[in-house]
Every structure is written in C-alpha cells, then in structure tokens.
C-alpha cells in the first residue's frame, strides 16, 4: 500500500486526464525540454526556425545513436551475452540520447501550432480544413507509434540494433527534406518577444517610481 502511494505526487498535481501524476513518468527534467522549445518559438525564433533548428539536433542524435550500434569502435564487446562498454562508448550513447531528447523537446510543442498557423480562422473553408488537418495529424502520430512499438521492436530484436536505430534516422532525414521543401509556402507568425523581459521592465519601473507622488487629479495619471 505504501509503495502504491509513493508512486504518485502528493502536491495535488494531475496528468492530462486528471489522474494523480505518476512520479517516474511525469515532471522533473522530462518536462523541461518541451518548455524550452515553446519559449524559444514564441519569444525569439518563431515556430519555423525553432522546428528547423531542433530537427538538426534530433537527426544528429539519431545518427550518433545509429553509429553507436554500427561502428565497431563504438559498440561494446559482448561475451556470453554480457556487454562491457567503455567510458567513451557509454558517453557516446548518452550524448546521443540527450540530443534526441533536446531535439524532441524543441519540435513537439511547435509542430501542431505551426500546422494551425497555416489555416486562417476567419476563412470558413480554411477553418474546416484545419479540423481535417488535425485529424490526419494525430492519426499519423498514432500510426507512427504503432509501427515503432511493433515493427521497429521486431527489427531491433531479430535483425539488429543498427537497423532498429538506422531506420528512424533515415525516416527523420526524409522528414527534414520534406519539411524544408515547403519553406516558401508556409505562413509564419512573428515572435512576440520574451515575456520575461516585459515582466522585468515592469518590476524595474515599479521600483524606480515607488517614491513618486501620485497627483490628486486622476486625469494626470
């Protein structure tokens, strides 16, 4: 009973469905990359350049992960089913995983919003097409998840990890080419600037003017 209770957060936080948050699956550093990507997109880079930049990071991580399972110098030596990686080999894998996590965190919070930017809410036809877009968008995500948890798992188990990692890397490369091929057709929202900067400006102005006397005539305020 105690173990079951310890699985969940105790501060009242919930997951997307309103259930108590499971500690090992939510929050902490796992949630931070997504916040970073959304912040950069809204404040400075815009969604297109944020997606473009983090795509490169993502594909670099996938490529490095593929190399770690393909290149002899990066693969650990295995004897009787037990593998003994060196420090550099372990480091390579972790760098690859962190790059993938960073790339995912930059892309995921921007893709759906960037897709929504391509449709004018004030146009009835485009507004209807926007609904259709999101239906296909989430359908594609679920198909990808199904393939990843079935076909790719089979390949990794029965063919090899190099193929299991290489196929997603190739698919990501194709996605990058496909994404950039439509560059001239995209509609882009201008970045709104950092909200932290505006908050800081208000705080500084408040401190500097805290001694200023307020005029009795409210029309001068």
From TrEMBL:
It holds the Pfam family PTR2. It is found in: Membrane. It comes from the Eukaryota. GO terms for biological process: oligopeptide transport. Keywords: Membrane, Transmembrane, Transmembrane helix, Transport. SUPFAM superfamilies: MFS general substrate transporter (SSF103473). GO terms for cellular component: membrane. Its main location: membrane. It is a multi-pass membrane protein. InterPro entries: MFS_trans_sf, POT_fam, PTR2_symporter_CS. One of its GO terms (molecular function) is transmembrane transporter activity. Belongs to the major facilitator superfamily. Proton-dependent oligopeptide transporter (POT/PTR) (TC 2.A.17) family. This is Protein NRT1/ PTR FAMILY 8.5. It comes from Rhynchospora pubera.
